TrEMBL record:
It comes from Companilactobacillus paralimentarius DSM 13238 = JCM 10415. It comes from the Bacteria. This is Neutral/alkaline non-lysosomal ceramidase N-terminal domain-containing protein. The lineage of its organism: Bacteria, Bacillati, Bacillota, Bacilli, Lactobacillales.
Amino acid sequence: MEGYTPRYSDSIHDDLFESVLYIENKYKLLLISLDIVALPGFRVDRIKRLITEMYGIDSSQIIIAAIHTHSGPTVTDLLIDNPEINSNYWQLITNRIVKSVAKAINDIKEVSVTMSSSRVNHLAYGNRNVSGAPFNDEMIELKFWNNGQMVNSLLSIATHPTVMNVNNKALTSDLIGQIRQNYKRKTGVTPIIFLADCGDTSTRFTRKESTFEEVKRIASLVTNSLNTTDFTSEELTDMNVTEVNYNCYYDPITSPTANELWLRIKNDYEKDKSKKGILDTYKHIRYYGHTHFTTSAYIYDFPELRIVTYPGELVYALGGKIREADSKKTILITLANDYRGYSVDKSEFGKYFESYNSVFLKGMADEFVEKICQRIKY
């Protein structure tokens, strides 16, 4: 299992799924959500190439994101050293995606679209580093209607969806799976769910225990917070796509900035042995982490709203810059198309765990986000 420390599952609590939403107008847009912890970029590229060849959808118009369950099979080498990755499992994921994409395309309907915004009950989740500190408490829904009946829904929430902890050995989609079940019971529709700026948000201060009953309790707080009446009509008639690249290239052994961080962690560990987890996390970045790469964010501009993808876990301060770059409503989809760990703003860098589980050095994430904001404003 991947997420927390490596361990072997002994049971299945609930099935893991792929979710697909296909939109076609003057353009094509395919959105895919996977019940796994994260997505290596090369795996995404392989899946996109298959879809492009089979269905004629350009790779820039395909969004593939993870729900970030910490209780699924190991699928990356991005979080732990020398992981046991089952290539047959990735083939299963790929095959299921291809079948679901075909089903979505063949089941297309004429729809109208509405958008609603809700504020989550702060008893469900919040800032996980400082109790009571700001976090993105907005939940955004896009609802798709056919002859007055809702036929599909996209739900954006901004929290680590983890209630179950390292002691859990049952495969599960955790909080996201329960939210989907609750939503379907209320509406008859299973939503496709994406995570927004959730890098420093979780149930750390709100969960009472790590049990499946607690998963149900918190999921109910989330779904009961959703606005059922106040929504606006949206036009998805035209779409403009912009790719924003970021190049990262440094050697963590020779980089002065990386070494400064490494020495600080080692010194902290010498004073406080309870910080071994942080030491081991950055040790993985130092010796196994991918620090030479090009990654991308995508901006999808519609007449009245915008979708922005981000290839990692974005903290609230940086997510807010993207969401508030201008007056247009923006839906953030993080952990999308790639995974580059946490993205922490330079003012908070080094204060909390997220900084040590990031291949971005201090200030890099700010540069990337600024490039995205500049393209939004351009």
